[in-house]
Amino acid sequence: MDPPFPPRYHERMSDALSSPAPSAPVPDPARLVARLGHVREWIFDLDNTLYPASNALFAQIEERMAAYMMRVFGLRRSDAQKLRREYWRDHGTTLAGLMRNHRTDPDAFLDEVHRIDFSVLRPDPRLRAAMLALPGRRIVFTNGTSDYARRVIAALGLDGCFEAVYGIREAFYTPKPLPAAYQRIFGADGLNPRRAAMFEDDPRNLEVPHALGVACVLVGPEARPDLPHVDFATDDLAGFVSRLGPLLRAAPRLESGA
Ligand SMILES: [Mg+2]
Protein backbone atom coordinates (compact mmCIF):
# COMPACT_ATOMS: atom_id res chain seq x y z
CA MET A 1 0.00 0.00 0.00
CA ASP A 2 1.27 3.51 -0.76
CA PRO A 3 2.55 5.52 2.17
CA PRO A 4 0.20 8.34 3.14
CA PHE A 5 2.81 11.09 2.77
CA PRO A 6 3.18 13.16 -0.40
CA PRO A 7 5.56 11.34 -2.79
CA ARG A 8 8.41 13.85 -2.58
CA TYR A 9 8.18 14.32 1.20
CA HIS A 10 11.16 12.14 2.19
CA GLU A 11 13.22 13.46 -0.73
CA ARG A 12 12.58 17.06 0.33
CA MET A 13 13.36 16.27 3.95
CA SER A 14 16.55 14.41 3.13
CA ASP A 15 17.63 17.32 0.89
CA ALA A 16 16.97 19.71 3.76
CA LEU A 17 18.82 17.51 6.25
CA SER A 18 21.84 16.62 4.09
CA SER A 19 23.79 19.83 4.79
CA PRO A 20 25.59 20.33 8.11
CA ALA A 21 23.31 21.48 10.95
CA PRO A 22 23.84 25.06 12.05
CA SER A 23 23.62 25.29 15.83
CA ALA A 24 20.47 26.88 17.23
CA PRO A 25 21.28 30.48 18.17
CA VAL A 26 19.73 32.07 21.27
CA PRO A 27 16.86 34.01 19.69
CA ASP A 28 16.87 37.77 19.81
CA PRO A 29 14.16 39.10 22.23
CA ALA A 30 12.67 41.38 19.55
CA ARG A 31 12.27 38.40 17.21
CA LEU A 32 10.69 36.30 19.96
CA VAL A 33 8.15 39.04 20.64
CA ALA A 34 7.51 39.65 16.92
CA ARG A 35 6.88 35.98 16.20
CA LEU A 36 5.28 34.83 19.49
CA GLY A 37 3.84 38.01 21.03
CA HIS A 38 0.32 37.21 19.77
CA VAL A 39 0.34 33.58 20.98
CA ARG A 40 -2.16 32.56 23.67
CA GLU A 41 -2.41 28.82 22.87
CA TRP A 42 0.72 26.77 23.58
CA ILE A 43 0.80 23.23 22.15
CA PHE A 44 3.41 20.76 23.42
CA ASP A 45 4.34 17.37 22.05
CA LEU A 46 5.18 14.90 24.85
CA ASP A 47 7.95 12.36 24.18
CA ASN A 48 11.45 13.76 23.63
CA THR A 49 9.95 17.29 23.88
CA LEU A 50 8.80 17.76 27.50
CA TYR A 51 11.76 15.60 28.56
CA PRO A 52 15.00 15.04 26.60
CA ALA A 53 15.58 11.87 24.57
CA SER A 54 18.66 11.28 26.75
CA ASN A 55 16.26 10.20 29.54
CA ALA A 56 15.65 7.08 27.44
CA LEU A 57 11.96 6.84 28.35
CA PHE A 58 10.82 6.64 24.73
CA ALA A 59 13.67 4.21 23.98
CA GLN A 60 11.88 1.76 26.31
CA ILE A 61 8.73 2.10 24.20
CA GLU A 62 10.72 1.53 21.01
CA GLU A 63 12.14 -1.67 22.55
CA ARG A 64 8.66 -2.88 23.49
CA MET A 65 7.32 -2.10 19.99
CA ALA A 66 10.13 -4.17 18.49
CA ALA A 67 9.46 -6.99 20.98
CA TYR A 68 5.78 -6.98 19.95
CA MET A 69 6.74 -7.29 16.28
CA MET A 70 9.25 -10.06 17.04
CA ARG A 71 6.56 -12.05 18.84
CA VAL A 72 3.65 -11.46 16.45
CA PHE A 73 5.56 -11.73 13.16
CA GLY A 74 8.32 -14.14 14.24
CA LEU A 75 11.02 -11.61 13.30
CA ARG A 76 14.60 -11.35 14.51
CA ARG A 77 15.30 -8.24 16.65
CA SER A 78 17.23 -6.49 13.85
CA ASP A 79 14.43 -7.11 11.31
CA ALA A 80 11.77 -5.98 13.80
CA GLN A 81 13.69 -2.74 14.47
CA LYS A 82 14.10 -2.19 10.71
CA LEU A 83 10.38 -2.70 10.04
CA ARG A 84 9.47 -0.48 13.00
CA ARG A 85 11.61 2.35 11.60
CA GLU A 86 10.11 1.88 8.12
CA TYR A 87 6.57 2.14 9.49
CA TRP A 88 7.54 5.26 11.50
CA ARG A 89 9.08 6.79 8.37
CA ASP A 90 6.26 5.91 5.98
CA HIS A 91 3.17 6.18 8.21
CA GLY A 92 4.12 8.67 10.95
CA THR A 93 4.11 6.07 13.72
CA THR A 94 4.84 2.36 14.08
CA LEU A 95 1.22 1.80 15.13
CA ALA A 96 -0.16 3.52 12.01
CA GLY A 97 1.95 1.18 9.84
CA LEU A 98 0.79 -1.86 11.81
CA MET A 99 -2.86 -0.84 11.54
CA ARG A 100 -2.61 -0.11 7.84
CA ASN A 101 -0.65 -3.22 6.85
CA HIS A 102 -1.73 -5.81 9.45
CA ARG A 103 -5.02 -4.54 10.96
CA THR A 104 -3.33 -4.53 14.37
CA ASP A 105 -5.68 -3.84 17.31
CA PRO A 106 -4.43 -0.41 18.46
CA ASP A 107 -5.61 -0.66 22.07
CA ALA A 108 -3.85 -3.98 22.78
CA PHE A 109 -0.67 -2.65 21.15
CA LEU A 110 -0.74 0.69 23.01
CA ASP A 111 -1.40 -0.97 26.37
CA GLU A 112 1.54 -3.32 25.82
CA VAL A 113 4.13 -0.77 24.65
CA HIS A 114 3.31 1.81 27.33
CA ARG A 115 4.10 -0.64 30.19
CA ILE A 116 7.46 0.94 30.99
CA ASP A 117 9.54 2.22 33.91
CA PHE A 118 8.70 5.90 34.56
CA SER A 119 11.31 6.25 37.31
CA VAL A 120 13.88 7.46 34.73
CA LEU A 121 11.97 10.77 34.74
CA ARG A 122 12.58 13.39 37.42
CA PRO A 123 10.45 16.43 38.32
CA ASP A 124 11.50 19.50 36.34
CA PRO A 125 10.66 22.53 38.53
CA ARG A 126 12.41 24.93 36.12
CA LEU A 127 10.14 23.81 33.27
CA ARG A 128 7.07 23.93 35.53
CA ALA A 129 7.75 27.54 36.56
CA ALA A 130 8.42 28.53 32.93
CA MET A 131 5.19 26.88 31.74
CA LEU A 132 3.06 28.55 34.39
CA ALA A 133 4.47 31.97 33.42
CA LEU A 134 3.29 31.65 29.79
CA PRO A 135 0.32 33.87 28.97
CA GLY A 136 -2.70 31.83 27.83
CA ARG A 137 -3.61 28.12 27.63
CA ARG A 138 -1.26 25.15 27.41
CA ILE A 139 -2.16 21.75 25.94
CA VAL A 140 -0.35 18.49 25.18
CA PHE A 141 -0.82 16.75 21.80
CA THR A 142 0.94 13.37 21.56
CA ASN A 143 0.88 10.33 19.29
CA GLY A 144 0.87 8.20 22.47
CA THR A 145 -2.25 7.82 24.60
CA SER A 146 -3.53 10.56 26.90
CA ASP A 147 -3.40 8.13 29.87
CA TYR A 148 0.29 7.55 29.21
CA ALA A 149 0.83 11.31 28.73
CA ARG A 150 -0.71 12.03 32.14
CA ARG A 151 1.72 9.60 33.78
CA VAL A 152 4.67 11.33 32.08
CA ILE A 153 3.33 14.76 33.06
CA ALA A 154 2.98 13.63 36.69
CA ALA A 155 6.51 12.14 36.72
CA LEU A 156 7.90 15.45 35.41
CA GLY A 157 6.09 17.37 38.18
CA LEU A 158 3.99 19.23 35.58
CA ASP A 159 0.54 18.40 37.00
CA GLY A 160 -1.77 21.38 36.61
CA CYS A 161 0.28 22.94 33.80
CA PHE A 162 -2.01 21.81 30.96
CA GLU A 163 -5.66 22.64 30.34
CA ALA A 164 -6.08 19.59 28.08
CA VAL A 165 -4.14 16.46 27.05
CA TYR A 166 -4.84 14.92 23.64
CA GLY A 167 -3.56 11.52 22.51
CA ILE A 168 -3.91 9.12 19.63
CA ARG A 169 -7.38 7.89 20.72
CA GLU A 170 -8.74 11.46 20.69
CA ALA A 171 -7.30 11.72 17.13
CA PHE A 172 -9.21 8.52 16.17
CA TYR A 173 -5.84 6.74 15.73
CA THR A 174 -4.63 9.09 12.99
CA PRO A 175 -1.16 10.28 14.03
CA LYS A 176 0.76 13.47 13.47
CA PRO A 177 2.07 14.36 10.86
CA LEU A 178 -1.11 13.53 8.90
CA PRO A 179 -3.36 16.59 8.40
CA ALA A 180 -6.48 14.78 9.75
CA ALA A 181 -4.82 14.44 13.17
CA TYR A 182 -4.46 18.23 13.52
CA GLN A 183 -7.96 18.85 12.14
CA ARG A 184 -9.46 16.54 14.75
CA ILE A 185 -7.47 17.76 17.74
CA PHE A 186 -7.50 21.47 16.89
CA GLY A 187 -11.22 21.18 16.11
CA ALA A 188 -12.00 19.29 19.35
CA ASP A 189 -10.00 21.82 21.36
CA GLY A 190 -11.41 24.84 19.53
CA LEU A 191 -7.97 26.44 19.34
CA ASN A 192 -7.16 29.12 16.82
CA PRO A 193 -3.95 28.11 14.96
CA ARG A 194 -3.15 31.76 14.25
CA ARG A 195 -2.87 32.41 18.00
CA ALA A 196 -0.93 29.19 18.65
CA ALA A 197 2.67 27.99 18.96
CA MET A 198 3.74 24.35 18.87
CA PHE A 199 6.82 22.70 20.40
CA GLU A 200 7.92 19.37 18.83
CA ASP A 201 11.03 17.21 18.47
CA ASP A 202 9.97 15.65 15.12
CA PRO A 203 10.33 18.23 12.33
CA ARG A 204 7.75 16.38 10.20
CA ASN A 205 5.09 17.12 12.80
CA LEU A 206 5.52 20.88 12.36
CA GLU A 207 4.82 21.05 8.61
CA VAL A 208 1.00 21.03 8.84
CA PRO A 209 0.86 23.41 11.85
CA HIS A 210 3.16 25.85 10.04
CA ALA A 211 0.84 25.80 7.01
CA LEU A 212 -2.10 26.56 9.34
CA GLY A 213 -0.34 29.62 10.78
CA VAL A 214 1.03 28.06 14.00
CA ALA A 215 4.42 29.41 15.16
CA CYS A 216 6.72 26.37 15.28
CA VAL A 217 9.54 25.59 17.72
CA LEU A 218 11.69 22.53 17.05
CA VAL A 219 13.09 20.97 20.24
CA GLY A 220 16.06 18.66 20.72
CA PRO A 221 19.84 18.32 20.62
CA GLU A 222 19.85 18.33 16.82
CA ALA A 223 17.02 20.83 16.37
CA ARG A 224 17.67 22.85 13.21
CA PRO A 225 16.54 26.44 12.90
CA ASP A 226 16.99 26.49 9.10
CA LEU A 227 14.06 24.28 8.04
CA PRO A 228 11.47 26.36 6.18
CA HIS A 229 8.62 25.47 8.54
CA VAL A 230 10.58 26.06 11.77
CA ASP A 231 10.49 29.51 13.42
CA PHE A 232 12.82 28.69 16.32
CA ALA A 233 14.96 25.75 17.39
CA THR A 234 16.19 24.97 20.89
CA ASP A 235 17.90 22.15 22.75
CA ASP A 236 16.75 23.58 26.10
CA LEU A 237 12.95 23.71 26.34
CA ALA A 238 12.87 25.05 29.91
CA GLY A 239 15.45 27.74 29.06
CA PHE A 240 13.55 28.79 25.92
CA VAL A 241 10.12 28.89 27.61
CA SER A 242 11.46 30.66 30.71
CA ARG A 243 12.54 33.60 28.51
CA LEU A 244 9.08 33.88 26.94
CA GLY A 245 6.84 34.55 29.96
CA PRO A 246 8.51 37.76 31.15
CA LEU A 247 9.16 38.97 27.57
CA LEU A 248 5.60 38.45 26.36
CA ARG A 249 4.00 39.87 29.49
CA ALA A 250 6.16 42.99 29.11
CA ALA A 251 5.52 43.30 25.36
CA PRO A 252 2.14 45.12 25.46
CA ARG A 253 3.63 47.76 27.80
CA LEU A 254 6.55 48.24 25.38
CA GLU A 255 4.13 48.60 22.45
CA SER A 256 2.03 51.17 24.27
CA GLY A 257 5.18 53.13 25.10
CA ALA A 258 4.67 52.79 28.87
MG1 LIG B 1 8.04 13.58 20.30
Ranges where pLDDT stays below 50 over 5 or more residues in a row are 254-258
Q: Which ligands, by name, code or SMILES, are bound? A: magnesium ion
Query: Averaged pLDDT, please?
Result: 89
Run of helices and strands: HHEHHHHHEHEHEHEEH
What is the spatial order of strands in the main beta sheet?
3-2-1-4-5-6
CATH class of the largest domain: Alpha Beta
Whole-number tally of structural domains:
2
Look up the CATH topology of the largest domain: Rossmann fold
Beta percentage is 5-15%
Q: What's a concise summary of this model?
A:
The protein is of the alpha/beta class and 258 residues long.
Tell me what you see in this structure.
This protein has helices spanning 9-17, 29-36, 57-73, 77-91, 94-102, 106-113, 125-132, 146-155, 179-189, 207-212, 237-255; strands spanning 41-44, 137-141, 164-166, 196-200, 215-219, 232-234. The protein is an alpha/beta fold and 258 residues long. The chain folds into two domains: 22-51 and 123-255, HAD superfamily/HAD-like (Rossmann fold), CATH 3.40.50.1000; 57-113, DNA polymerase, domain 1. A six-stranded parallel beta sheet has the order 3-2-1-4-5-6, with helices on one face. α7 packs parallel to α11. Mean pLDDT is 89; it is low at 254-258. It binds magnesium ion. Magnesium ion binds next to loops.
Q: Secondary structure elements and their pairing?
A:
Blueprint: H1 9-17, H2 29-36, E1 41-44, H3 57-73, H4 77-91, H5 94-102, H6 106-113, H7 125-132, E2 137-141, H8 146-155, E3 164-166, H9 179-189, E4 196-200, H10 207-212, E5 215-219, E6 232-234, H11 237-255
Parallel strand pairs: 1-2, 1-4, 2-3, 4-5, 5-6
Helix pairs in contact: 2-11, 3-4, 4-5, 7-11
